[in-house]
Amino acid sequence: MTDVQINSAAVLNSDGHDLIPYTDKWYESLKGVLGDAACRQLGFYVIPSGTLLSVVIPVYNEVESLLDLLAKVKAVPIRKEIVMVDDFSKDGTRDLLKKLEDEQKAAETDGETTQNNRLTIVYHEKNRGKGAAVRTGFAAVSGDVVLIQDADL
Q: 120: Cβ–Cβ under 8 A, 6 or more apart, which residues?
């Protein structure tokens, strides 16, 4: 049996090194401790290495909660693209999104990788509603799996 420590933040192998979540080694370590049936019941599984998750976030007047939400989405250890669709916010959200775009462009210019959390922002020129924002987001994604995350948590 594999010597593994499990806590809410990480799975450690016997050397004390973090195992990357959702990889074969991570899953095999959990399966060695919990068993195959428990892993299936708990929803632990391997995500193929080339998989890209697309997270569509329709946004309208979310300036207060947007950075917190974005940090939580980015913290999920899965390769993903985050597509935020601003539905003509009027509370400063658009300015915040433009700042996030500028920060990402600067990071890419400096050679920093954004591969695990690629950010795309789309702007509606008038308020069209959440459904339209979701459809716009779907049109902008390129991932293998798509999900919708509400901006107001």
A: 81, 82, 83, 84, 140
Position 136: which residue type? T
Instruction: Name the residue among 150, 80, 146, 148 with its Cα closest to residue 119.
Output: 80
Q: Output Rg (C-alpha) for the chain, integer angstroms.
A: 18
Per-residue pLDDT tens for 94-113?
Answer: 999 999 999 988 888 776 66
What's the pTM? 0.82
Q: Coil, strand, or helix at residue 118?
A: strand
Q: In what order do the strands lie in the sheet with 117-123?
A: 117-123, 80-86, 53-59, 145-148
Query: DSSP assignment, residue 43?
Result: T
H or E segment at 146?
strand 145-148
